[in-house]
Amino acid sequence: MNQPTRRTFLKTASAAVAASSLGSIAAGAHAAGDDTLKVGLIGCGGRGTGAAAQALNAHPKNVLVAMADAFGDKLESSLNVLKGQGGIAERVQVDDGGKHVGIDGYKKLIEQVDVVLMATPPHFRPEHVRAAVEAGKHCFVEKPVSVDGPGTRSILESTEMAAKKGLTIVSGLCWRYHPAKRETIARIHDGEIGEITAMRCSYLTRGLWSHARQPGWSDLDFQMRNWLYYTWLSGDHTAEQHIHSLDKTAWAMHDVYPTKVSGVGGRIARTADIYGHVYDHFAVEFEYETGLRTFSRCRQQNGTDVDVTDHVYGTKGYVDVMAHRQFDLNGNQVWRYKGPNANMYQVEHNEMFAAIRAGEPINNGEYMAKSTLMAIAGRESAYSGKTITLDSVLNSETKLGPADYSGAVDFPKTAIPGVTSPLA
Ligand SMILES: NC(=O)c1ccc[n+]([C@@H]2O[C@H](COP(=O)([O-])OP(=O)(O)OC[C@H]3O[C@@H](n4cnc5c(N)ncnc54)[C@H](O)[C@@H]3O)[C@@H](O)[C@H]2O)c1
After folding, report:
1. For 141, what's the count of Cα atoms within 13 Å in the CB-facing half-sphere?
2. Counting atoms of ligand 1 from 1, which one is nearest the CA of 241?
3. I want to staple 44 with a disulfide (CB 3.0 to 4.6 A). Which of 60, 69, 212, 241 is the partner?
4. What's the mean pLDDT in 343-371?
5. Buried b (16+ CB within 10 A) or exposed e, 92-112
C-alpha cells in the first residue's frame, strides 16, 4: 500500500519544513498518505468550536489534542460541546496537558499539533499565523485576519513563508467554499455577464450579543469578552462581518483589489456603553484603477430590515450572487443554480485536510489579507471622513491595541469624521 505511518508522515513533513526554510522546497512538502493529524484550536468560542467539529468530521484520523483560550470557562464549555457530539467525541482527546489558558497559551499548543485552527478575535491572528507557520504547521484561519496595517503586512509575510514551506493556509472566508457560489462566480469569470461594470453589496443585519460586566473582570477582560465592540479587537463590523461581502466582490474580480476608498458611517442606534466605541453603520465606495466602483454598505441595528445580498453587473447582464441567479440586461432570469449543495464550513475543512494529506497545499493567504485590508481601509475612510488609498493603510505603522496584555487598557473613543485621522 505504501501508506506512510504517522512517524514517517510527520518526519517527512518536518524534513520538508527544514528544507524549505533553506528555500529549497515548495510543492509536495508533505508526504501523501492517510495518517493521523493532530489538530489544535486557538479561540474556543462559537466559531472555533464549530471549526473543531468540522475538522474532526473531515477525516476519521483527525484528532483534537489541544485547545487554547484566553479564558478557562470558554475552553471548558467548548470541550464539553465537542465531547458531546456523536461521531467525533472519541477523537476529542484533550487532556490537561493539552489545555492552555491565557493569551500566551497558543505557543505551547502550536508545539503539540500538526494543524492549527484559529478563531480568536482577529486582533491576535497575525501573531498566531506567524507562530504557526514559523513552526511549520498548517493553518485554518478565520476571517478577518487583522485589524490594522502592520497586522495585514504580517499576514502577507506569513503567507509567503507558508508557500515556501509548502504549508496549507485555508481561510474562513467560507463563501469561497460554497458550491452554488462557486458556480455563480465561475460564470462571471467565464464572461457570462460580459465585462464587469459595477458591483454592490450589503450586509444589513441586527445587533449581536454582548456580556454584562461581572465582578472580578479587569478592563481588559471586559473588552475581550465584548470584543466585537472594540476596533482594536474586531476591526469593527465592516471587517468582522461585512468582510464576507467585500471578499465576494474581490473573488468576482479574480482578486484584483480597489485602490481608493471613500466611506461614511456612524453610531446612532447602538450607543450604550456596553457596545464599546464601534460604529453601527457604514456605506463605503471602493474605486479600482480602471475607474470601476463597488458600492458597499453594512449595518447592525435592531428593528431594521435584514439585507445580505451582492450583485455584480456586467455589459451583458448581472448576477445575484447570494441567490445564485443570472439575469439579462432587461432583468429576465437566464440561469439559476440547481446543483447539489453542501455545508461550506464542512467543505473548507474537507478540502483543507485532503490537501494536507495529498501534499498539495492550498494557500488562501493573499486574498484573506487583502480582503481584510479592503474592510479596514473602508473603516478608516469612514472614521476619518477622508478619501484614502488601500496602500496608505497597508503601509501604516499604527498598531491597534495595548502594547502588552498585562496592564491597564484604555477605553477608546468613537471616531469622529473630520476630527479622527486615518491610520498612519
Ligand atoms: N466564517 C464565519 O462565517 C464566521 C462566523 C462567526 C465568527 N467568525 C470569526 O471567528 C472568530 C471568532 O468568532 P466567534 O464568534 O467564535 O467569537 P467568540 O467570542 O464566540 O469566540 C472567540 C474566543 O476566542 C477567545 N480568545 C480571545 N482572545 C484570545 C487569545 N488571545 N487567545 C486565545 N483565545 C482568545 C475568547 O475567549 C473566545 O472564547 C472571529 O474572527 C469571527 O469574525 C467567522
Report:
1. 36
2. 43
3. 69
4. 98
5. bebeeebbbbebebbebbbeb
Ligand 1 centroid to residue 358 C-alpha, Å: 29
Arithmetic mean of pLDDT, 138-155: 98
pLDDT in tens, 51-67: 999 999 999 999 999 99
Where does the pLDDT of residue 407 fall: very low under 50, low under 70, confident under 90, or very high at 90 and above? Answer: confident
Give the binding-site residues of ligand 1, using a 6 Å CB cut-off.
42-48, 68-71, 74, 103, 106, 119-122, 124, 142-143, 172, 174, 224, 240
**Amino acid of residue 337:** Y
Domains of the chain: 6-175+346-363 (3.40.50.720), 179-339+371-394 (3.30.360.10)
Query: Do 17 and 137 contact (CB within 8 A), yes or no?
Result: no
Mean pLDDT confidence for 305-329 = 98
| C-alpha cell recorded at residue 403 | 502594547
pLDDT confidence of residue 26: 31
Q: What mean pLDDT is predicted for residues 259-272?
A: 97
CB atoms within 10 A of CB 189: 11
Span 265-275, average pLDDT: 97
Atom 8, ligand 1: residue with shortest CA distance:
47
Tell me the average pLDDT across 61-81.
Answer: 98
Residues near 224 by beta carbon (within 8 Å), at least 6 away in sequence? 70, 71, 121, 233
Q: What is the pLDDT of residues 29-40, one digit of tens each?
A: 344 455 999 999
pLDDT average, residue stretch 205-209: 96
Task: Tell me the CB-side half-sphere exposure of residue 374, using CA atoms within 13 A.
Answer: 32
Q: What does the pLDDT average to over 178-188?
A: 98
Least confident of 20-29, 95-104, 156-165: 20-29
Report which ligand 1 atom has the smallest distance to the Cα of 172: 1
DSSP 17-81: HHHHHTT--BTB-S------EEEEEE--SHHHHHHHHHHHHH-TTEEEEEEEESSHHHHHHHHHH
Which helix (DSSP H) or strand (DSSP E) does residue 205 occupy? strand 196-205
Say how many C-beta atoms besides its own lie within 10 A of residue 142's C-beta: 23
As a whole number, mean pLDDT of residues 75-86 equals 97
Rounded CA Rg of the chain: 22
Under 8 Å between Cβ of 306 and 204: yes
Could you count the other beta carbons within 10 Å of the beta carbon of residue 23?
9
Q: Which atom of ligand 1 is nearest to the CA of 43?
A: 24
Q: What is the largest CA-CA distance in the chain?
A: 67
